[in-house]
Each structure stands twice: as C-alpha cells, then as structure tokens.
Amino acid sequence: MNDPHDAAPHQPVDPTPRRDAPAAGAVRPVSSVPVNVPPARDPLDPSEGPVNAPTPRPAVARGNAAVSGRFEPQPPVSAVPHQPTPDSAPVSAVPADTPPAAGYGDDTGTTTYVSRETPTREEDDPPLAMEAMRAVQILNPSGEVTMPRPDRTRVMCVANQKGGVGKTTTTVNLAVALALHGNRVLVVDLDPQGNASTGLNVPHHTGVPDVYDCLIDSVPLEEVAQAVEGIPNLWCVPATIDLAGAEIELVSVVARESRLARAIAAYPGHFDYVFIDCPPSLGLLTVNALVAAQEVLIPIQCEYYALEGLNQLINNINLVRQHLNPQLEVSTILLTMYDRRTRLADAVEQDVRNHFGDKVLQAVIPRNVRVSEAPSYGQSVMTYDPGSRGATSYFEAAQEIAERGVKEPVSRNA
C-alpha cells in the first residue's frame, strides 16, 4: 500500500516498477534528511522523479557487505554508550588516527608510543666517552697491557715532506691510544689544512684561536689548546686557514725558527707527550717543529716512491741538529699502508729495517678501510672501530713507543 503522503491527489499512481529502480535486497543510499520528515516536492519538476518512488531508507551496515564506490561517505553516527561488563573491554568512539589508550585493567593509565622511525636510546650512537671506554675494553680486555708514563715530556715531531704517507693519521691515532691509557697528550696541528683538528673533531674554522696566534702574536698556548671531546687527557692546538700565510709572515720575525719551542716550553701544565703534525714540506713551519721537538717520528709508506725523498729529510734533520737543536734525533720509524699481498711491501720493509735497524717499530700499519673512514666521522680509528686491524696495529705501535720512553728517557723537559 502506498503512503498517502507520497502521492498527490491530482496525479495517478503508476503501478509499473521503474527500470532504474534498485533491485530487491540492494543497499540504498542514505538520505541526509530525517526519515520521518519527507522533503517538499515540486510536482512540475521532472528531476524529482515519480511521486510514488519509495522514500530512501538508511543503509544497514553488514559485516560482509562490499562497499560500492558509488556511495558517498556518511558522517559518523554516534553509538549508544555501551555499559561494560566484567568480561568485556570498554568501547569508546574515538577517531581512527588517535593512538589507543591504555589497556583495560592497566594501573598506570598511560602508554608510551615510540615511532618506528625514531631510534630508541639503545639504538642511538653512543657518546664519544662511551666509545672511548669501549675501545679500551676491546683493545685491552684483560687490562694487563699498560703504557707507562715517561719521566719527562716527550716532544715528537711527525714529519715527512712527502704527502699521503700517513702523518696525520699516525699523529691522531697514537695520541688517542696513549691518552686512553692514562697519558696526558697534546697534539699541535701545524698543517694549514687542519686535518689533525678534523680527525679529533676540534673546531678550527676562521676566527677560532689557533697555532697561528701562538707563532705570530705570541699568544700563550694554554689560551689556544682545546680539550678533545670524549677522550680524557687529550688536548689539541688547532690549525686554521690563517696558518697558510704564516711562513711568509715569519720571515721578518726575530728568532722565527724557535717560536713554537718557546710556546711549548712556557706552557704551565705538564704533558707526557706532545705530538706535532707537520705539513708535507720543509719550510719554516716544519723547521719550527724540528726545533721544538726532541724526537722525530717518520711514517714511511710501503711503496717505492715513498723512499725517494727520505734522504733529503734526513739531511735537513741533521742541519737542524747541528745549528738549532743539538738534542734532536730520529727515534722512531713507522711503516704504514702495508699491503701483504704485494712483494713490493715486503721489499720496502726489509730495506727500511736494514737501513734504520731498531728505530723501526715492530708494529706495521696495514691498509685498512676503517682507518680511512674514521676521520669523516670526526674520530680516530681507536674509537671508530677498535676491533679493526688498523686500530690494533696503532695500539701496538703506541705500546712500543711508551715502552721505549721508559727504557730510554728523554733528557730535556719541554
């Protein structure tokens, strides 16, 4: 029977069903107008359709009913508050993107939510101090290996006029290894490129007090030295780009060869080791390092070309000893970038050992990718990957240097 509200008195009722009428059982679109208040119809408007069309009814949601793409989304319908029972959890009408509340029966009432993209504390990179402690535990797990402190300060100049032989890498890693085992170490970056400062993660941009101020303006060394983050007992005097013009400016300075020696001697504190990283040249900066040092450490790359300029370096060291620093001596030779797969590396090692004898350390630094990667992270290989072959080799080299300092103590205090 037709609803009397749907039929107008002046139009007949068409009993024939419409072709476009929805099939029986089909889900009809939900009208936004309440069911009990029919909308007003214009009988003259053909878009209204037949007046006897059934009134749309609210769609009934079914659990297994497929959602048709022609139905428009409807606003959420508020559900009747559900009374929880002892066997059921409370149901709350909350948006889908809202994090769920604490579980039913949770005493705390709060839950911590961590994004999958946010690492937890255990996944974060540990601080440098923790890296240093881990390095000591890995390199010296039993604690039996010690690096004794010398009776006097040992000032070592790491020099070689050939570039790319491992001067800066040797300076940084030996300094860190000795500092991690209780020695007070100072690194003086005398290379205008500032690679040692970068390897120790020490600021050395323009405007930072650096070794240039000590050489040119006689600034005290204690006002320039910076403590290395995460490495106890280690300090660094950085180098900035200003140092590139220092050699020209030192030409007219009185006693220009001994400016660095005076700065180190005037330092009020006490260091066990002072490592001076020299530039790959034999200019005034290198001469200042040779005058300030007591010992020369020469890294030699295990390749043929690395031996070509070695005689010239030895001659310059002898000239400095004769005229400026009588106590200077070549105390340590360290073979670096050793590749055991080549016969050339073995040949170079034998030639160097035959020529320099006991001055060559037994420890040999191999070619290792971890040694090359560490400076890009502002670390030494000792803290970057203490279990690598490069780290263990530098650890052994530092141990040899420390033991030699006790057996043959230096004769002059810096």
UniProtKB/TrEMBL annotation:
Region (Disordered): 1-125
Protein name in UniProt: Chromosome segregation ATPase
Domain of life: Bacteria
SUPFAM superfamilies according to UniProt: P-loop containing nucleoside triphosphate hydrolases (SSF52540)
Composition bias, Low complexity: 26-35, 103-113
Family (UniProt): Belongs to the ParA family.
Source organism per UniProt: Micromonospora sediminicola
Database matches in Gene3D superfamilies: P-loop containing nucleotide triphosphate hydrolases
Ranges where the AAA domain occurs: 154-330
Function: May play a role in septum formation.
